[in-house]
Amino acid sequence: MIETTTNWFEACRVEDAVQNGGVCVKCGEEQIALFYFTRRNEWYATQNLCPHRRQMALSRGMIGSVGEDPKIACPFHKKTFSLSTGECLSGDECAIQTYPVKVEDGLVYIGLQN
Amino acid sequence: MNHETVIVIGNGMVGHKFCEKLTSKSDNFNIIVFGEEPRRAYDRVHLSEYFNGKSAEDLSLSHENWYNEQNITLHLGDPVKEIDRESKTIHSNKGLILNYDYLVLATGSSAFVPDIPGVDKEGVFVYRTIEDLELIKNYALNAKTGSVLGGGLLGLEAAKALIDLNLAETNVIEFAPRLMPRQIDSAGSQMLQTKLATLGLSIYTNKGTSSIEGENRIESLKFNDGSELKTDILVISAGIRPRDELAKLCGIEVGTRGGVLVNESMQTSDPSVFAIGECALFNHNIYGLIAPGYEMAEVVAANLCEGNKTFNGFDMSTKLKLIGVDVASFGDPFTTEPDSRSILFEDTHKGIYKRINISNDGKYLLGGILIGEAEAYNMLLQTVNNKIALPPNPEDLILGSRGGSSQTENAGLAGLPDDALICSCEGVSKGTICNSVSAEGCESVDAIKKCTKAGTGCGGCIPMVKDLMLHTMKENGKYVRNVVCEHFQLSRQELYDLIKIHNLKNYEQVLDNVGKGDGCEICKPLVSSLLASIWNDMILKRGNDTAQDSNDRFLANIQKGGTYSVVPRIPGGEIKPEKLVIIGEVAEKYGLYTKITGGQRIDMFGAHLSDLPLIWEELIAAGFESGHAYGKALRTVKSCVGSTWCRFGLHDSVSYAIRIEERYRGLRAPHKLKSAVSGCIRECAEAQSKDFGIIATEKGWNLYVCGNGGSKPQHALLLASDVDSDTCIKYIDRFLMFYIRTADPLTRTAPWLNKMEGGIEYLRNVVVNDSLGMAEQWEIEMQNIVNSYQCEWKTAIEDPEIRKRFNHFVNAPEEKDPSVKFDEMRGQKKAANWTTA
């Protein structure tokens, strides 16, 4: 059996995050989009790259929901992705990577698999 | 489970479709694909769009990881050169030797090149692959005159490509007496020729080419009738030749005139080898269209998965736009007396030709041809294929019903049987589509596309899919309303009133009070626009910021690569030299690409997000303000120079344009607003193409409304004539408030007026005669908006909370996005192309 460990990367303070929107977190060479869904009191993290035209843009997109599922719309062409599964909700683009998020003592952490 | 190996030879459209079909049906195959070309399968049907600005990646049928994700091994640039049927192995050009259980030949076709003397000269090309197009493009740089040999479907596509390359002269030469001889009749061809001639194509029919002349490179064509035609480049599109050489080499049976023989299961003479697409010969036919190719792919995929499907020939009906002219041919387009009767309609004024062939007893439609207008194509094709009984006056099918009820279209849709094929690319029936609406709850075209794949091929059936969806929803007792989205079961106009009545001030309040769920990218910008129109608060106030559309959120236009463009307001297009200098200095300092816009302003591109506040600080210090180029708001009021300088000018159009632009600057509306003022009837400011345009007359101003450019240009209509400056502004106030209040989301003034019952007469009554009694209220509301104007950028740079948002990284605010890339062009920068794959 393979064990995976989660590394918790300190992203920012809660008050630095944008309410009901996203920010981009620099995580080594990677860019991760972090969303603070204040309405639902939920946090989500995904890759910042929109796979449709390969633009570093998801953190600047608009969040929302389809049914119960939370989603993000890319600002470029409004391709939407589920924030819970990463699945593309509009057409056949490939799915995006999602990451777990936790908040402790006013700090937001993103979980990276080693 | 032991996976069986399927090797696919050929990565064209049909080969790709086969992979899609097989992987969607089963995971039990090990699929290996060999492609001769260096790139993944692309859309050959729309090849000419490559000259129209589409990149190879845009034309690609899959995203770059698709094959990987499906566990398909893809060998590009490596054609198979030999098949050994004894040992069931293939040998690739690069030396790979692999075993197969099943082999699928999807080798397609090559261009048929007739044996004309001189055909090997420089400047003679075929039109088949992106590589061919590259060669043509490079050669055409030094060419003035281009010709296409072959006036069939593909030949006309090639001619379109030459026109797009800006050749001074383009000719089409066809051996047969008419264009598209397999699809349309002589009268149709005549109409098509006339239309194409007006678009700059010279067409020669009945011309056999005897030789291609020129020293080394082509200089002219000689014809059998002794005539000659000068040309610098020749594209041959005289038909296709199935690529059957591999099959021939390993002893699989091929037709005498080419093509791999297949049975109705697409099986060749070797039961473990299949052939699909343009290389397959079924029942003496090569099917050179995409839909039958896809159907063949479906047949093989289904049979490998133990289904039982057969190919039974295919309807060759087709509809396409050739160089902007609609052409359709369906059923049996050519049948004549005594087998049938034809109804013809010809309008040489508009360039429309229609022919339908009906059975002798007048009961059934057999086929037909449509040139110049082909909206009825889908319905007519369904009528043929489903043997639907014709109405008593079948001419209504092509002329529209005259004087009677206008419900024929929907009645026809309802009358279709469930197995009527709606999307022939993906083979989706009416029943499947209606079922996706009733049983799966699909209530948008996108949802239906996702659920059934209907409309994902050529897209021609989408209007029908939409009509079927609305029809089914109505049948199911669903009240079809024009609602915003799943979060607001209200129209835009209802929302407008509710926000006002309940005094709602931000998006969250609106959602809590009159909506449900968490909102989405459709309702958020819409509500934000309404809030801005009604209250005119700073759009980035907390609670409003993240509900703004992406450009409004950062007060700039996002461009390719993730940088932004900046447009300061230059009212009326008038600017002092020192301000021009400032723009130049700012652009230089921040490394921006500069371009004059269509609206007499200057656009600066390529600004990093974090540079935006710094750029605006400098611009504002120099007296500039936001130009609102990012908003669904008033953009610009264009002007001609007017009576101050022009010897024809009647009034000072620049001063009036500045007055109007400063009055309505920042006004949020359902869509962008453009305006212009011309100083005389010569109309240099093009005011009649604007949402509201003003033209000076001897006695005052004429006010025109509801014009627009864009994809469907429409001239503005005269609303009031010879009015003075203040009255004109009053009318504009009322007109704009009426529009902002009642238009559907993202509807510009022209389509708004088109939908208005009573049209311009009604609008004039409301605006000029105050028939609704709203004039005073609207003028007050507009004055409030004018009084509360603020430059959003000034507010933004002065507020540290808002400024903080203009950084790319939340945890490294000083760093810019390292993924931003620029290329160089004509001494300035440009955004790197979408994908580098």
Automatic annotation (TrEMBL), chain A:
<dbReference type="Pfam" id="PF13806">
    <property type="entry name" value="Rieske_2"/>
</dbReference>
<keyword id="KW-0411">Iron-sulfur</keyword>
<dbReference type="InterPro" id="IPR012748">
    <property type="entry name" value="Rieske-like_NirD"/>
</dbReference>
<feature type="domain" description="Rieske">
    <location>
        <begin position="9"/>
        <end position="110"/>
    </location>
</feature>
<dbReference type="InterPro" id="IPR017941">
    <property type="entry name" value="Rieske_2Fe-2S"/>
</dbReference>
<keyword id="KW-0408">Iron</keyword>
<dbReference type="InterPro" id="IPR036922">
    <property type="entry name" value="Rieske_2Fe-2S_sf"/>
</dbReference>
<keyword id="KW-0560">Oxidoreductase</keyword>
<dbReference type="InterPro" id="IPR052034">
    <property type="entry name" value="NasD-like"/>
</dbReference>
<protein>
    <submittedName>
        <fullName>Nitrite reductase small subunit NirD</fullName>
    </submittedName>
</protein>
<keyword id="KW-0349">Heme</keyword>
<keyword id="KW-0479">Metal-binding</keyword>
<keyword id="KW-0001">2Fe-2S</keyword>
<keyword id="KW-0534">Nitrate assimilation</keyword>
